[in-house]
Design brief:
It is a single chain. The protein is of the alpha+beta class. The chain has one domain: TATA-Binding Protein. Helices cover 36% and strands 28% of the residues. It contains seven helices and seven strands, in the order H-H-H-E-E-H-H-E-E-E-E-H-H-E. The chain has a seven-stranded mixed sheet with strand order 1-3-4-5-6-2-7, covered by helices on one side. The protein starts with a helix and ends in a 5-residue tail after the last strand. Keywords: Signal.
């Protein structure tokens, strides 16, 4: 988004000044980090990074129930919704990454990492969240989003709340309804830390 904004500003100033900019100079090349992000976000589980951080308290739990569909189809549908969720659009000012990862028990998850400017004292990672899914009964799947506070110097409560609320709201929007319908999933229960008492 920043590249697009800079490109717009450059084009505007060239148009006003009459300066002709060669089109080859305007081509944006994918960065190495963008290529790593694209590769890691694929469904090839052999490329998932191993997650070894400590998981803190749960922020969100959604229990899904399903009938007339296979366990794998239901689980795949929840994984696809989570992996394709537009986390960056929810927090356009907060730099973050979201990549699939593998847990020590061999299960897969999605790790959202909040970023900050790296300094000599602090790493670039500023905590984050992890989304895990697993079958809890024959026809029930639980999705749990937990806090990762490792690296946080300031609590990210606002960012966590915005992600959780947008994630839940997304289940009621077109893409979320399609995912639920496709796998014949039903939301059995929702719990999150910001529920009204």
């Amino acid at each position: 988004m920043i590249n697009a904004l800079l490109l717009f500003l450059l084009m505007r100033s060239f148009a006003v000044s009459g300066f002709k900019c060669p089109t080859a100079a305007l081509r944006l090349q994918p960065t190495a980090s963008a290529m790593r992000l694209h590769l890691a976000a694929s469904n090839d589980e052999t490329k998932f990074e191993m997650f070894n951080d400590e998981i803190d308290e749960p922020l969100l739990r959604i229990n899904f129930s399903y009938q007339e569909t296979t366990d794998d189809d239901a689980l795949e549908s929840i994984q696809q919704y989570t992996r394709s969720f537009p986390f960056a659009a929810v927090l356009p000012v907060q730099p973050l990454t979201y990549l699939p990862c593998r847990l020590p028990d061999g299960e897969t998850a999605l790790k959202v990492t909040f970023l900050r400017k790296k300094t000599e004292e602090k790493d670039a990672k500023d905590g984050g969240m992890i989304f895990q899914w697993k079958a809890i009964e024959r026809t029930k799947i639980s999705l749990v989003a937990s806090r990762i506070s490792k690296g946080q110097t300031v609590p990210k409560i606002f960012s966590e709340k915005q992600i959780v609320l947008a994630f839940i709201k997304g289940l009621d929007e077109e893409r979320g309804r399609e995912m639920l319908k496709k796998a014949n999933l039903h939301v059995a229960s929702i719990f999150h830390q910001w529920m009204s008492v």
